[in-house]
Amino acid sequence: MTAFDHAERRIWSGKAEAYARTYARLCAHPAAALLDAAEAGPGSRVLDVGCGSGTVSATAVTRGATVYAADAEPGMAEATRLAVPGIAAAHIARLPELPYAEDTFDAAVGNFVLNHVGRPREALTELRRITRPGGRVAVTIWRSPGAPGQTLIGRAARTAGLTRPDWLPALAPEDDFPRTPEGLAALLDAAGLLDAECTEVAWEHRCDPDTWWAGAERGIGAIGQVLNSGGAEGLAAAKRAYEDLSGEFRTPEGLLALPHAALLAAGTA
Prior knowledge:
Elements: H1 3-12, H2 16-21, H3 24-27, H4 31-37, E1 45-49, H5 55-62, E2 66-71, H6 74-83, E3 89-92, E4 105-111, H7 120-129, E5 131-142, H8 148-159, H9 181-190, E6 194-207, H10 209-217, H11 221-227, H12 231-245, E7 256-268
Parallel strand pairs: 1-2, 1-4, 2-3, 4-5
Antiparallel strand pairs: 5-7, 6-7
Helix pairs in contact: 4-5, 8-12
């Protein structure tokens, strides 16, 4: 594994419940479009890699697909197994080394999983390997620069003077790619997927301000590590900044209305 992969395992260890209670609903938004792009329907054999809390798997099961799920974090794989009674299996496995034979699946989907692997091109090559010729691979990633709702807590952290901790590496330059429609489509091309296409998906996520803060406060994702890097004092300063900045997004009902944007790409194996 790369240094980035090791950091991801550290970040997400034991976070399945916190994720399910906070950011899982946010990440569920593109699930239907992702499965449409993968042409996952009745009778198809589908792999949901980076399954998280099981939203994509559950949606695929309701479509009549035979669904297998995989996640590098054991708690996530178990959460999906429990949440999706009709699932064929939920395995502990990480990209780019999946425990499946070549040409096993009709479709492979990864909802935001490419954000969490050290070698994204190799991860896509692995998804192509386990997908039959003519089958579909579809993925989502967060766009960069992020939409205003995505950057709210990061802005609060910067206002409080918090920075990325030294132990948290970025992708190696040779493994990185532009988080744009053109950049993601080119990555699929480089992985050997045919007729790759990428579109932007935008939505407004509504949630309670305390719930939005709680995910990062509990250490979810890279932003959670930044937020907690300054100890209790830094966390308190960031919370004050968050309360001020979040006013931009508050509805009359007291919720946050947070604009988000992701990229959805698919290609043929």
